[in-house]
């Protein structure tokens, strides 16, 4: 008696006695049941009985007959399905309406899916009936299982026929239809594509071998045509929107009904047709390309440009190159305008400012810089505005890409250094803001302005030139107390130190220290005067260390009037009583004075330069009709001729004519004569005349500055070469030149030829010696 485990009854083997087994009768019965299964009538069949039929055939060695019979029935059924559900749905070639054609293609794709679902369902049921055969026969006969055989038969009778071509064409037509903007039934396409994925051939899935290749070929043809159409009909922003839309639609297509494995190939086609051949063309489109988008603040379109160009070969390089060209073009325009407006030569007249009620009223608005400085201030402000614009583009549209930032900085540095007066203009801009431009601003706003100015300074390669101008402008602000904020001055100094190091700002800091020490000395001096007879003129002296300040002693000291000389000698006596071994040289050209002048109508308080005071004192004891010639004034004061003319022009030719010039005119000539203008009238009590103001240098002054800078550079190169050779002892020429260039880059970019000349000079002075190979040097201790 047989036993079985609980829940899994064991099928009893056929009895040996009784009716003999007949393979033919068994197959007839089983094949009839298989046909019922294929016709979806399995509900009335006995699973146990049909399973036993298949089991008995395998048991009696009729498994080959069973296998081949089932294969034949499946093939016959597939042929029937094709005839009933697929072939009648082939689209007629005469259909011209795209919507009707799409609907016909959709019916065909649904027909395939219906056939597949039918086949899959019946093969699943057959696999259960033939489970015993699948366990025994396929391995022995080296044939596929029932399920795999079913897939092979589906390939032979459904796919590898003219049906396949119609199916592939239908899928491609659906894709084409969708690309043209129509709505399709994606689920129908997906159903067919899924079938293609399930079916394997020797070379891969049917999807890979039959559909994907043709799909990519059709896509390439479509997008080549699409690129030409878009280029001829769209401006740059619209072109980018269309291209991005194509990327998104193809990604959606891949995600919803194609295969992820097709994605890389499809994206490459998009890149090779829509982007790579047209990178420069699109980004440089007139009136709509990169320049236009930047001008009109189209940050979303610029972000789209960046997103599309970044992953494409050559895209980021094209973007960076075009950005550099755009900045250089804009920068060149700024440079040309700056050098053209007002000439930038600093020949504008020095202004005169009022003091009193009217000036206080004007003080509510931002004071204007002197006319000669306008081009400088406008140029720097334009550079900062341009930098702000591109910084916003970089931050908001280019995702703060560091490579893009490097290109932007490279372009700004290029056009800034192409401006011959960039160091001077930058210093003038800072000078204007530290004198008048930051009144009413908060500390944060002041810090922001100074940070922006440092941006321009950072681009300047000749920082030693900037230092010379900045030192001169700072000196005048400190001496004439024109800075609106000591904190802002020191804040600027600390920013310069961070950028260029302590050596760069050491002399500037020395100037601040001199101002503080001078203030303390004046407090002591005034206390001393309380115990002795004070001079008739009250003076305020600033003692400047010669090596810190940018002023040089005059070739010949002016002849000071007795009243001034007395005050100077009084201070000298005080100073030398506290310091031994020092020498004082009076720089009257840098001073100013307050005086009272009495005219016929009334008296006025005048603020004039020290030299102007010396000139006016010459007229103190003259009659109203008396005059002095230019030569007499020059002989009496011994003021340098250029400074003398400038002060006479301020007194006699500007807005407030304290002196009369004979003959009239704006230029001072050696034949002119001057008289005191007793009829002078003005509505205000206090008048400031010939205020020292910052302005661009004249060509002659610029040449002198350039010569001084070149001389200083020679010494710096000499010191650098000696310092390097003292450490290395022996170096080749090219290696030495490169090292000198590197070490001096924070100050200026030395010319290799200039370095070579300084090496020759050091050899002559026996600091170095040339080696026998003539290509290297030794240090001589």
For the sheet with most strands, the description reads: 3 strands, mixed
Tell how many strands the DSSP assignment holds. 11
Q: Structural class from helices and strands?
A: mainly alpha
| Helical content (DSSP H or I, runs of 4+) | 55-70%
Strand order of the largest sheet: 3-4-8
Termini gap: 117 Å
Quote the average pLDDT: 86
Strand content: 5-15%
Please, how many helices?
Answer: 30
The low-confidence runs, each spanning 5 or more residues with pLDDT under 50, are 1-5, 341-367
Family: Belongs to the cullin family.
Biased composition (Basic residues): 1-16
Protein name: Cullin family profile domain-containing protein
Domain Cullin family profile: 421-652
Comma- or semicolon-separated keywords:
781 residues; mainly alpha; 5 helical Cullin repeat like; three-stranded antiparallel β-sheet; 30 helices; 5% strand; elongated; disordered N terminus
Write up this protein.
With 781 residues, the protein is mainly α. The chain has five domains: 23-201, Up-down Bundle (5 helical Cullin repeat like); 231-283; 317-500, no CATH class; 588-688, Ribosomal Protein S5, domain 2 (2-Layer Sandwich); 699-779, Winged helix-like DNA-binding domain superfamily/Winged helix DNA-binding domain (Arc Repressor Mutant, subunit A, Orthogonal Bundle). Helices cover 63% and strands 5% of the residues. It has 30 helices and eleven strands. A three-stranded mixed sheet has the order 3-4-8. The protein has a three-stranded antiparallel sheet with strand order 5-7-6. Strand 3 (592-598) and strand 4 form a beta hairpin. Mean pLDDT is 86; it is low at 1-5 and 341-367. This is Cullin family profile domain-containing protein. One of its GO terms (molecular function) is ubiquitin protein ligase binding. It holds the Pfam family Cullin_AB.
